[in-house]
Design goal:
alpha/beta; Rossmann fold; eight-stranded mixed sheet; 8 strands; 40% helix
Length: 311
């Protein structure tokens, strides 16, 4: 699929923003630090436009720094808990104001974005535990879990499921539903699309994903259920929508995640978007497909809340 010049340029810049990450992780490049790469990455992500009619605040979620985005029109005491992506190594709420605000306006709810610690300094399972701690804080503040939904992209898309599993296991009430956007669901990278989409994926390579997975995992195995939710016990989770681009290396493993959820009696919707790339939702200002995907996910989550509150 051909994209306009703005999308093509931003995609190229997004890919190039991480070109030094591998050499830095491997110790082959000492001219730049991983913190400098992270800062540059967030600045690049932050170039996606943020609407003026939202309020952005820095808050603390029980020891986890976070961002709270509030739209002008809040129709109910609802919350979207958004988990950013970045392979557990880069990324942060500062790069997600535009996307989170789009969800906030579509759902007319407040959006919380936890700023979890990153690998390799804080390897598996720290990012997942931080995110769970932020969710536990939200519930401890008296927020009705039936009015909470999760959404996240890439690594955050996997954590939509992983944090739900962690909450269930800890006896913390589950949210009403979740949206996993381009989830990085299987760190074994065994899906067919890891091979037949190589070169077609505009942002990722299998070698790059392998290196980032190993950096995040530390001594853990890639089939650890907390890291790769295709291996998790997902019984009892609330409804989840999985959205994946047909051009992604992660396509097959996202399909596997949806099947795994369904086979374990979790209500699941799977959307495969022809020609779309990793987390195309970020380009909602330029792409109709981005706006439509956000609208679909928002509608799914709104319905999940309506159903949960009616029980």
């Amino acid at each position: 699929m051909a994209f306009n010049d703005i999308v093509t340029h931003r995609l190229q810049q997004w890919a190039e923003s991480l070109q030094d990450l591998g050499p830095v992780i491997l110790g082959e490049n000492t001219d730049v630090t991983i913190d400098e790469i992270r800062q540059s990455y967030v600045r690049k992500m932050a170039e996606h436009p943020t609407p003026a009619d939202v309020r952005i605040e820095q808050i603390d979620m029980g020891g986890v720094p976070a961002t709270l985005i509030t739209p002008e029109n809040v129709e109910r005491d609802g919350v979207l808990f958004y988990i950013h992506g970045g392979a557990y190594i880069v990324g942060g709420p500062g790069g997600y104001h535009g996307l989170a605000a789009a969800f906030a306006k579509a759902m007319k709810v407040r959006v919380y974005l936890p700023d979890y610690r990153l690998a390799p300094e804080h390897a598996f399972p720290v990012p997942i535990e931080d995110t769970f701690a932020a969710y536990r804080w939200l519930i401890d503040q008296g927020q009705n879990p039936k009015s909470v939904t999760f959404a996240g992209d890439s690594a955050g898309g996997a954590m939509v499921v992983s944090v739900m599993v962690m909450a269930r296991n800890a006896g913390v009430p589950l949210p009403a539903g979740g949206a996993a956007l381009s989830p990085w669901a299987n760190l074994e990278h065994t899906g067919a699309s890891m091979f037949n989409r190589e070169g077609l994926d505009k942002l990722n390579t299998k070698a790059g994903l392998d290196l980032m997975a190993r950096t995040f995992l530390g001594d853990a195995l890639p089939n650890s259920p907390e890291a790769s939710p295709v291996f998790a016990d997902v019984r009892g989770l609330p409804p989840i929508i999985v959205q994946i681009g047909e051009g992604e290396l992660m396509l097959s493993d996202a399909i596997r995640l949806a099947a795994h959820l369904g086979e374990n009696r979790v209500r699941v919707s799977l959307e495969i978007w022809p020609g779309m790339f990793h987390v195309w939702h970020m380009f909602h200002a330029e792409l109709a497909e981005g706006r439509e995907a956000i609208a679909n996910a928002a509608a799914f989550l709104d319905q999940a809340v309506t159903t949960a509150l009616a029980k």
